[in-house]
Every structure is written in C-alpha cells, then in structure tokens.
Amino acid sequence: MKNWNVIVSIYQDGFKRALRALREFGSVGHTPYHNILVMAVENPLSLLNSVEQRANEMPALYDAISRVAPAMRSFEFQSAEEFLEKAKSIILEWSPQLAGQSFHVRFHRRGSTHDLRTPDVERFLDDALLEALRGAGAPGAVSFSDPDAVIAIDTIDDRVGVGLWRRDDLARHPLLRPD
C-alpha cells in the first residue's frame, strides 16, 4: 500500500488478532518490516478513536496493538536533503501552535537507504523549531519530561507521516505512544 496515512505497530504475538480487528476499519497493508502494518483511511484520527473504542470493548487488542500512528501530513522523498527540507517545512507551519511551549521531535525510521540518523534528524528539527519560535518572540523549549507537545515522524521506506500531538492527545489516546 503506497499511499498509507497510518502506521500500526503490533506486539509479537498479536499479529493475527490485530490484522483481523483493523480490517473492520479499512484496507490494511503489509510492510516488509516485522510487525508493522499500514492503512489508508479517510480520517486517520477517527481511525485511532475507533481502534481504541474497539480495544476498550475487547481489551485483548491492547495486547496485540502496540501503537497507532496517524499522519496529519505525509509526503514522499528521494534524498535525505529532501526529507529534511519537507519535514522542516511542515514543522515550521505548526510553530504558531507551539509558541512558548515545550516539545520534542521523535523520529521512527523504517527502511530507506538515505543517510537519516535518528538523533541527528531529531536534533536538526528541534533546533529549527526552537530558532523559529525565538525569531517569533515566543521561545519554546525541548523537553522529554511531560512536554506540551510531541511531533512524531514515521517513515516506511521513502514515505513519511507526520503528526503533532498535544499533552491532552497523549493522555486521551493510549495507543498513540510517539516515544
């Protein structure tokens, strides 16, 4: 599935159970990565709500599904430079929402032969956002302990999904787990 907008991570023994449950909500695609599925749905946040509702009805799903990562924005890239440029552009669009807030970027990379090292990507994007916030007169801070927001970036080969999750989103959605 090329145009996914949700990544679902599965616990070791939960693959069949998770796959069966997710098929109720839309088309599910396999990836070449162990226990990683993708979906293309009309509204990724609604999918998250639906999966969590089903997991509340069938608690065994919490033992099958580790993480649901809806993408608010997605893009494809052909080089590390293109990835950094596009990811930075999206994050900077969100800077007004993060004015004076604490945050951090979390990067989950699967595949891709491009030179994208997780700590370097996270630091580059954190720094870009800090600079933009300082320039706007509303400095923010990088925090890994109870931040106001987490920006989650997930890749499957050369496709990227990006989400901005506020503290209340993280508290309300146990399957988000961006860290």
Any overview of this molecule?
By secondary structure, this protein is of the alpha+beta class. It contains five helices and nine strands, in the order βαββαββαβαβββα. A hairpin with a 5-residue loop joins strand 2 and strand 3. It is globular.
Quick summary:
With 179 residues, the protein is α+β, with helices and mostly antiparallel strands.
Number of strands: 9
Helix coverage percent: 25-40%
The ordered H/E elements are EHEEHEEHEHEEEH
Q: What is the tally of helical segments?
A: 5
Which oligomerization state do the chains in this entry correspond to? single chain
Return the structural class. alpha+beta
Shape: globular
Average of pLDDT: 95
Write the SSE topology.
Elements: E1 6-10, H1 15-22, E2 28-30, E3 36-39, H2 44-57, E4 65-70, E5 73-76, H3 80-93, E6 102-108, H4 118-135, E7 141-142, E8 149-156, E9 159-166, H5 167-172
Parallel strand pairs: 6-7, 6-8
Antiparallel strand pairs: 1-3, 1-4, 2-3, 5-9, 8-9
Helix pairs in contact: 3-4
Q: Key features?
A:
179 residues; five-stranded mixed beta sheet; 5 helices; 34% helix; 26% strand; globular
